[in-house]
Amino acid sequence: MVEMTQYLLSRPHHLIPLTTFAQRYGAAKSSISEDLAIIKEVFEDEGIGELQTLAGAAGGVQYIPKVGQEHALTFIHELCEKLCQPDRILPGGYLYMSDLLGQPALMNEAGKLFATAFAHVDIDCIMTVETKGIPLAYATGAELNLPVVLVRRDHQVTEGSAVSINYVSGSHKSLHTMTLSRRALKEKSKVLIVDDFMKAGGTIQGMVDLLAEFDATVAGVGVLVESGEVESEQRLLQDYVSLATLRAVDAKEKEISVTPGNYFNK
Q1: Per DSSP, what are the bridge partners of residue 259?
Q2: Bridge-partner residues for 180, per DSSP?
Q3: pLDDT of 174
Q4: Is the pLDDT of residue 184 over 70?
Q5: pTM value?
Q6: Cα separation of 217 and 5, whole Å?
Q7: Which of the following CATH numbers is that of domain 2-65: 1.10.10.10, 1.10.260.40, 1.10.10.1590, 3.20.110.10?
Q8: pLDDT band at residue 93 under the 50/70/90 scheme
Q9: Which of 48, 70, 135, 149 supports an S-S bond with 107, CB 3.0-4.6 Å?
Q10: Average pLDDT in the 160-176 region?
Q11: In 118-196, where does DSSP find H-type helix?
């Protein structure tokens, strides 16, 4: 049963026929079903996720990762505490986050929260722009069993032919370029955009515009941290899920204010 649980956890959103377990363990399907019923109960009690059973010849069992509200709240509060450390303040009032983005365990937990928020959304792939959002995108992709598409800021010859667009980002409204290989994304794909930080939303809006060139649609947007200093009407997009909100950075007093994002309001 332990090995069966591990098998399911390592294959989220993957339909596994009961015959797979029956052949793997040399057991009858009825015994496998009883074991799965126990695993399902434990998953739900511990807030690990759902175990869905599909009947019929093409049926089987599917593990859907879902983080319970209590666990999600605990993680988000811990994330806020880490972000509030005074030594994160950089010149110009910027916040250092690279160390957090480089922690696999932390990103995996954040990925589970996004997988929970978008568990029942029809998605074909995860998209992010290089480079800081990459760990978060891969963590989310692993939990949703989906591929990751990377948008680059500069075209690479090894990417083949690509589509490039200009977009405006940053407090100084600077003009930037982003590019995506034509082979990286199928037309009419449904895409979940994931990024590490969002201020006014210029970079994410750039990805939205880039998706339009592929006749693709945005299935959702998830950001680790959003800026709370931007008024709602000034933000370029309104429909997104955030885990934390950066309220203020006082470089002189070495104080940072971070609160939970809108995750629980979605």
Answers
A1: 245
A2: 163
A3: 82
A4: yes
A5: 0.91
A6: 35
A7: 1.10.10.10
A8: confident
A9: 135
A10: 84
A11: 134-144
- Can you give the C-alpha Rg of the chain in angstroms? 21
Beta strand 255-260 with 60-65 is: unpaired
Write down the architecture of domain 87-265 according to CATH. Answer: 3-Layer(aba) Sandwich (3.40)
Tokens of 83: 């972000």
For the segment 196-214, the average pLDDT, to the nearest whole number, is: 95
Residue 245, pLDDT score: 97
Query: If you ran DSSP here, which 8-state letter would residue 153 be given?
Result: S
Given phi > 0 = left and psi -120 to 50 = alpha, else beta, which region is 173? left
Closest CA to 152 of 124, 125, 181: 181
Q: How confident is the model at residue 172 (pLDDT cuts 50, 70, 90)?
A: low
Taking residues 72-94, report their average pLDDT.
94
Please report how many Cα atoms fall inside a 13 Å half-sphere around the Cα of residue 111, on the Cβ side: 24
- Cα–Cα distance, 229 to 249 (Å, whole number): 10
In the predicted structure, residue 213 carries a pLDDT above the cut 70: yes
Distance, first Cα to last Cα, the chain: 35
Other C-beta atoms closer than 10 Å to the C-beta of 222 total 29
Q: Under a CB-based contact definition with an 8 Å cutoff, are residues 180 and 152 in contact?
A: yes
Kindly list the domain boundaries of the chain, sorted by start residue.
2-65, 87-265
Pairing of strands 190-198, 217-227: parallel
Mean pLDDT of 30-54: 93
Confirm if 62 and 52 have CB atoms less than 8 A apart. yes
DSSP H stretches of helix in 47-124: 69-83, 98-101, 104-117
CA distances from 97 to 11, 87, 110, 176 (A): 30, 11, 14, 22
User: What's the pLDDT score for residue 103?
Assistant: 97
